[in-house]
Amino acid sequence: MSVLKNLIERLQDLPGIGPKSAERIAFWMARRPKEDVKAIADAILETVATLETCTLCGHVAESDPCSYCADTTRDAATICVVETSRDLEALEQTGEFHGRYHVLGGHVAPVEGVALEDLNLSTLMDRVASGDIREVLIATNPTFEGEATASMLKREIGAHDVTITRIARGIPSGGEIVHMNAAVLGEALRSRSNFDA
Ligand SMILES: [Zn+2]
Prior knowledge:
alpha/beta
């Protein structure tokens, strides 16, 4: 396989990159000054070498446990469950939440064959079963998949003696947490309510 053909195939592993985009990026790289392309490659390698997945919460961070799990000033009895690390960072930007997090690593997607068990669920259930948790705030996206994930989570967690809340519906249905401004998101966190889906 030629070097270029290999690159084009590898690039297609990236989210949102199809064959046409992969080809365009590959030829762009072939024409660019070598230093520019090498800087991109170095950034990727540095990410691979530095980032870890927190074994407690699933957040992608520079340490394990991550800084949120290691921070003893945060309320360990409240867990905010999010789909991705990007959602965690967006919620953190609001400054409204002072508990711990749990990152599922995606959402339930029946069409793509992703079930609840395929997500980072077992460590969450361990945390809930420990008896140290008072509230689980479900902050999956208000999208079709996010809502389905929230309902299934509630069913799983419901057997335990914890309060289950959901971020407020003030955030537009179908919207995604990472695209909302901090003010709207902060309000959604403040006005969370008991989840009875
Ligand atoms: Zn963590």
